[in-house]
Amino acid sequence: MAITREQAEALIQQQFVNTIFQDVPKQSAVLSAMRKLPNMTSKQTKIPVLDMLPVSYWVNGDTGFKQTAQQAWDNVFLTAAELAVIIPIPEAVVSDSSYDIMGEVTPRVNEAMGQRIDQAILFGINRPSEWQNDIITLARQAGNNVSASGGITYDNLMGANGLISKVEDAGYMVNNIIAAIKTRAALRGLKDSNQRPLFVSDMKGSTPYALDGTALTFPQNGAFDTSVAQMIAGDFSQAVYAIRQDITVKLLDQGVIQDPTTKEIIYNLAQQDMIALRVVMRLGWAVPNPATRMNGDRANVPFAYIEAATPATDYAVTFTVEDNAETPAAIVGARVDVNGSKVTTTADGTAVFHLRAGTYPATIKASGHTTQSATVTVTNAPVPVAVTLPISQ
C-alpha cells in the first residue's frame, strides 16, 4: 500500500521546522549580532535595569558628616510580536514539478523573515506597535548621527566626532558595524595622504573591510534602508532579543485565505485543490540601556550611524512639563521616555525629541509627582506636547 499524505505529514512538518528554525537567525544580520536571552514564557518579559547610580562624598574633617545617596532601578519590557507568512501552492503544481518546490520555498521564507526583522529593529520599517523605537531613532535622539554630506571619509568614520567615537562617547566599544552594500565602493575609494587605497592591500586577494579592528557586515537580504543611513555601528551586545514562540510550520490543505484589507476570499484550499505553507514565529527585543558612569541619565545609547547623503526628515516634538499648582511651575529634571528614547527636562521644563513620522507612546515622570502617559503622533510638522504632572499627596 502507498503511504498517504496523512501518514507522512508528521515527517514533512518536522523537516520544515528544523530547516527554517536553524536558518532564520542566519538570514537576520541584526539577530546574529545581538545577545539572545532565554525564551520568553509569556507575551511580555520584564528586565530590571539600573536607572540611578549612587554618589559618594568626601568627609570634611574628623567630625564631618557622611552623606547619603540613592540607587534606583527601572523596568524595560520585551514584548513579543508575531511574524508570519502563508505560501499557497496548487497540489497539481507540486505533483507535476520536477523540482522540490517546498525546498525552493523554504530559503525564501527565511530571507523574508530575516528582512522584516532587520528592517523593524534597525529602521522601524513596519515596526510592530509592541516594540520600542528602532536603533536609528534611538541613535538620532542621542545625537549619534554623523553627517555624510561630503561623502564617506576617514574623518567621519574614525575621526574625533566620527562614527566610532560617537559610540565610545556613550561609554561603549563598537563590536559590530552593519553597512549598505553600496558603501563598499565608497570604502574602496578612501585613500591615505600618499593617495594609496586604505582598503586594498593586494589586487589579487580579497579586500578586508574593517574599522578600528571591527569587521563590517553587508546584509544582502534587502533590509538596509539607504535613504536613512549608510552605516550603523554599535555595541550590539547591549541589544537583546528573546523568542516567545519558536518558528512553527503547518501544512494546510483546508480552509480559505482572505485578503486582510477587503476580507475577500482569495483561495479556497479544499475547493481549489491547494496546499498552503504557514510559518509563524513570535519574538521581542530591546535595548535595556542601563545607567553607567558615562551615561548616568541613560540619554545616550550604544549605537551611532552615518546618515544618507540627504538626511531623512524628522520633526521636533517638544514636551513642556509643569506641575498642577495653582500657578503651574515648570518641572526641571523630569524624565521623558518616548518609547525607549530618553530626555530630561531643562530649566524651562522642556524636553525636545527629533522623530520621524509615526505614533509613539510616552511616559513622563519626576520625583514627587504622579507619572503620566501620553501618545504622540508625528506627521509632517513639529508637535508641541503639554504635560501636567500632579504633585504626589
Notes on the structure:
With 393 residues, this protein is of the alpha+beta class. 21% of the residues lie in helices and 33% in strands. The protein has helices spanning 5-27, 29-33, 91-96, 101-123, 135-141, 154-158, 163-169, 183-188; strands spanning 35-36, 44-52, 72-79, 81-90, 145-146, 176-179, 210-211, 214-217, 229-234, 240-252, 256-258, 265-268, 274-286, 303-307, 315-323, 335-338, 341-344, 350-355, 358-365, 372-378, 383-389. The strands form six sheets. Strands 5-14-9-6-8-7 form a six-stranded mixed beta sheet, with helices on both faces. A four-stranded mixed beta sheet has the order 1-10-13-4. A four-stranded antiparallel beta sheet has the order 17-16-19-20. Helix 1 (5-27) runs parallel beside helix 4 (101-123). The radius of gyration is 26 Å and the shape is globular.
Which tags fit this structure?
six-stranded mixed sheet, four-stranded mixed sheet, 393 residues, alpha+beta, 3 domains, single chain, Immunoglobulin-like, 8 helices, Major capsid protein gp5 fold, hypothetical protein PF0899 fold, globular
CATH architecture classification name of the largest domain? 2-Layer Sandwich
> What percent of the residues sit in helical stretches (DSSP H or I)?
10-25%
Low-confidence stretches: 11-16
Distance between the termini: 80 Å
